[in-house]
Amino acid sequence: MSDNVEFLQQQVSRQREKLDHAAGVVELTQARFDTLSADYDEAIRERKRIKTALKLAERRAERLAKEAKRAKTLARAAAEDRDDAESELSENISTRDKRQAKLVKAEVALAAAQATEAVEQAPAPTKKAASARRAPAKKTAARKTAATTGSARATTAAKRTPRATGRRKAPAKKA
Q1: pTM for the complete prediction?
Q2: DSSP code per residue over 42-88
Q3: What is the 8-class DSSP label of residue 24?
Q4: Burial of 124 (0-12, 13-18, 19+ CB in 10 A)
Q5: Fewer CB within 10 Å, N side or C side of the chain?
Q6: Number of CB atoms found within 10 A of residue 117's CB
Q7: Nearest to 161 by CA among 125, 132, 135
Q8: Quick check: helix, strand or coil at residue 167?
Q9: How many Å is the Cα radius of gyration of the chain?
Q10: Mean pLDDT over all residues of the chain?
Q11: Residue partners of 169: CB distance under 8 A and separation at least 6
Q12: Contact (Cβ atoms closer than 8 angstroms) between residue 164 and residue 118
């Protein structure tokens, strides 16, 4: 019987070793499982966070795309307005220049009319006084000098006073 008891004791000690070994493997596996469970939970939280951030980024991208489209439309409208204002400015400048030219023309006509009126109101010299001052020989000499040089003729014509005919000039045309 002692053989039988020894045999059973050896069997128990082998079973105990196997159990201790299995228990050690279970402890190691449990520790590994706990670590991996924590990693899994962390990965799930990270996935949810990234998914939420993705949705937020998509919303921001949509909003920015809408703002970019709106800004493009505003820029196009501003460019059209600027072009319209530029053409209107050039039209207004040309209108102003035309009006300024007409004003200058009207002022010149007014000055000429006032000068003519002033000449008409001035007392005209009598023929007797003019002939008494000049001798007929001098008139002939003056005519020859004026005929030989064109500039002398122009100066004598400019010095002459216009005749009063009783006619008046027509007023300047209005635009």
Answers
A1: 0.41
A2: HHHHHHHHHHHHHHHHHHHHHHHHHHHHHHHHHHHHHHHHHHHHHHH
A3: H
A4: exposed
A5: N
A6: 11
A7: 125
A8: coil
A9: 60
A10: 82
A11: 109, 112, 113, 116
A12: no
